[in-house]
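Q: What does the assembly look like in three dimensions?
Context provided by user:
Components: two
Sequences:
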Amino acid sequence: MTFKPLDRVGIAARIAQDIPEGWFVNLGIGIPTGVSDHVPLDREVIFHSENGVIGAGPAPDPDHVNPYLVNAGTQHITLRTGGSFVHHADSFAIARGGHLDLCVLGAFEVAENGDIANWAHSAHDPVRQVGGAMDLAIGAQRLWVAMEHITKGKGHSRIRRLCSYPLTAKGVVRRVYTDMAVLDVTPKGFVVRDMVPGLTRDELQARSEAELHWS
Amino acid sequence: MIDKFVPDVTAALAGIADGSVILLAGFANGMPETLMQGLVAQGAGDLTLVANSGGRDDGPVAELLKSGRVRKLVCSFVRGTSVAGRQFAAGKLALEIVPQGTLAERIRAAGAGVQAFYTPTGADTILAEGRETRVINGRNCLLEYPLMGDVALVDAWEADRWGNLTHRESARNFNPIMAMAARLTIVQTRHVVPLGDIPPANVHTPGVFVHRVVHIPA
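A: Here is the predicted structure of the complete assembly.
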């Protein structure tokens, strides 16, 4: 094997390259949280955190932590100049009402029809962590997913013909960024837009349960 | 003269009955922790709690659950390794998982007199099984009903005697909407200010939604 998969920070940095100035963006918990670290502050992207923060900024230095200002992952943050606060119903009106240009979520699986599964491993999973994922998934203008291409333990592909886990939403994913490739979800299925250097088409297809297209 | 201040937590929580639906505000911060601790001591049982999350192993939600007085939890998020997660797995706690935006909107709807609404959130998921869905403007939508509380426990930064409130930064979260959605809204405030001190345009929760306020300094 002559290719090197991206690490989680590398996936976040790759996503940040594709976010233009002016977008209003929500970042989910996990890999997506790191995306904002790679958007330069002079590129004015407004980050939304679903606990009511518009204009979320980087982590504070340890001497200037505001205990009343956290993001949806409960990490202490700062507020960009121009930012504001709203209550929870308005914050989710932002998500559900189509006001976000982009939401980036982590996921267990994405299917070639745009289905996403990211909240439970089975219908009887005692861990029930839906949080705001279903609202963000149906509401944002664009939904991108950040995840590893295959599972850590058994090496199962997360790029599926159909999701095997309970769905978060149907037919909503537009693009997937993995540690190996960038894939668009199109009417004919997954179309590969980018791959890490050294990876061949056959090697990527071998790690994908769904059929991949190349143009 | 309108004066919603009560002298202490016991007076603030007086009369909460067995079987009540309790709205608990807060998302990491902005939690009415002293009132929640007081509710354990107050003794009402068979409670339904409505909160963003089921909490962790300690903290005010976990303490309420450990007290054995909670029958049902309505929330968006339960950790497997938490008091709520273990009680649910053991069959000791009824659990209703609600997507966080639907949770907020059901609470807002209760406060606004909206009797039901349709949303695409959750419509194509296992949360919709056995429930009414309908295609609206080409999208599959799920029917949702308002979530009214008998009691809301709310946190504020400042309060005046009419019950006008401000909330700090992201500590606002569920506080204004839960204040609107309960028959009895009880507030704990860090600071007490004279009527008129909060600039009218800066009131986050108007006092008309508030019934009792107790001063809990730092």
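Follow-up: Chain A touches chain B at residues 49-53, 66-72, 74, 79, 85-89, 91-93, 95-96, 120, 123, 126-136, 138-139, 166-170 (CB under 8 Å).
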